[in-house]
Automatic annotation (TrEMBL):
Region Disordered: start-end pairs: 120-143
PANTHER family: BNAUNNG04460D PROTEIN-RELATED, VOC DOMAIN-CONTAINING PROTEIN
Start-end of Low complexity biased regions: 125-143
Signal peptide stretch: none
Lineage: Bacteria, Bacillati, Actinomycetota, Actinomycetes, Micrococcales
Name of the molecule in the record: VOC family protein
Top-level division of the source organism's lineage: Bacteria
InterPro entries found in the cross-reference section: Glyas_Bleomycin-R_OHBP_Dase (IPR029068), Glyas_Fos-R_dOase_dom (IPR004360)
């Protein structure tokens, strides 16, 4: 069962969530220049700052610094010594769709989205500067 999907301006799936039992699996389109990798996993934690800090202490490298997003989440990404990327996420608040879309128009949330996309793209493509593509309202659904 698909629980949400967001298409980006460039026509790719930028974010999709599939619910399997009580687990939500995150997926998105791979860009042609990105390498095959072991995995990119998003994990939900009660305290993103603490979990992120523990990952760094244990040898993970920062891919995306911690930040607050338009979806009511706080999180960041780390790469473990084996090459897996972990998206460490905490749900801070429940945000209705209309509020989320309004937030994505606000500079601080738009910047967070741009940085999150560009930092991941730079890591996966091996380039100094990553790409981003803003979400389009109506190009997917969130339920």
């Amino acid at each position: 069962m698909r629980s949400s999907r967001v298409q980006t301006e460039d026509g790719l799936i930028g974010h999709a969530e599939i619910r399997v039992g009580d687990t939500v699996v995150l997926a998105f389109d791979r860009r042609p220049e990105w390498p095959a990798m072991p995995s990119l996993l998003r994990v939900w934690v009660p305290d993103a700052d603490a979990a992120f800090g523990r990952a760094i202490e244990r040898g993970a490298a920062v891919v995306t610094e911690l930040g607050d997003n338009a979806f009511g989440q706080r999180g960041g990404r780390v790469k473990d010594p084996l090459g897996n990327i972990w998206w460490v996420t905490q749900q801070v608040e429940t945000v209705p769709d209309d509020v989320m879309w309004r937030r994505l128009q606000q500079p601080e949330y738009a910047e967070n989205m741009r940085y999150a996309q560009e930092s991941l793209d730079a890591e996966l493509s091996g380039s100094a500067a990553g790409r981003s593509s803003a979400p389009r309202q109506g190009a997917g659904d969130r339920s």
